[in-house]
Amino acid sequence: MKETILFDQGYEWIYFGRDLDKPEKIIDTNQYLIKDGNRCLLLDPGGIETFSSMLASITRHVRLEDISDLFASHQDPDIISSLRLWDKALPHTRLHAPWLWEGFIRHFGCNNIEYVGIPDDGGVLQLNRAKIHFIPAHYLHSSGNFHIYDPKAKLLMSGDVGAALEPIDSGIFVEDFSEHTKKMTLFHQRWMPSNKAKNDWISRVRELDIEMMAPQHGRIFKGEDVKRFLDWFEELDVGIAIKPFDKEEAA
Amino acid sequence: MIQNNHTEQRPFFALAATVAGTLESVMQIAREISIAAKNAKAIAERAGEKANGFRPITDYINEIGQEMITLVKAINKSALKVSRIAVDELRAEDAYQRLISAKAYSAENTPESIHQLILEATEALSINRAALENEKNKLIELLMAIKIQMRATAVISTCSRVEATRADEYETNLEAVAVNVEIASDKIKHIIKECDDLLNTSSVSRDFVRNFK
Ligand SMILES: [Fe+2]
Ligand SMILES: [Fe+2]
Fold it and tell me: B176 at the A interface (CB within 8 A)?
């Protein structure tokens, strides 16, 4: 599994992904760790199949007992189907996830870990030095969905927003934005259901000072590419799967 | 990074993954050994005849560094495999437990199909358990191999010190190389010891043993 440090000023943001050992038909995922002494937060820990290499990778950076918190942006299996395993490996941690999904996420197996439901409006989590914000991103794509914003690191972890489907050996950062849009278009058009939710999110995110936008699949956007992404996303018509039905059936 | 507390309660699949993560740092140290060997070689070249005894040792140190990298890669792979099999085992155990519950629900009238599923689950678990034992043994053998190599490294650094004393004005330089190799190998020994402890404190799937007694 590849890894790279995204931020290192008093605490760290570490990227993990491009797991070469994962079964071929499983979507590649990006995981992030905020390393902050004995209050470390693991973001979108991933599925069962990548659990072992993920755990091996993070133990190179932190002691397991220092992982105090987990975060699941939404309920998808590529985000948190490993919960049963974390529940055994890290029984004393808390899982911060949308309140809406509690009854569903618990189906993955959550006997020891404390489920802390994030209210619809979001909230704040103070680690040691890091203070992170849960930013509402409902319907992007899940009905209960959050992103994480760190104002000090100027980093937005954007879940499935900004995701791209790429080969396992591709780079970690966006290099050529317009080229990259080709790998994002269909994903966003199909997976994101609502233009209204999209535009609401864009207007809120434009208010934030962001140097890096880090999605759960594909590549990380840096500097000007963050703004380029927001402009591109604004222009994109999403929720396309219902369009043929609208036009033909409803006429 | 090795865990100091809680290791005993930690499930085996987590410990195995920790071993893989921990050994990754050995790779870096093995690279340091190779660099030390290259430096030594350069010094020995400059020292000419005075380093005649030392020169072949530098090749040997380099070889050890390379072999160590190969071994550590294999150990990492094996530890990850152990962790994956242990995860599978946990899932198989979950399935088995749930089938047993299903049987309890149906009381005396357990349908044949559930009995059959329980039988299959039992077999799947024993196959998994055998695979886990097998891979765990491989991992232990690999750890053994790296320990043997560490012993060879100790002999080499002693020889290096002896040969360094015969290299006149290059003595300090060459001795520094021997010291570097020693420091690196001490670090590796320490990490391997921690891995050993991790694997020894764990017991493979106590639940399984309990269930099938
Ligand atoms: Fe998703
Ligand atoms: Fe996803």
Answer: no
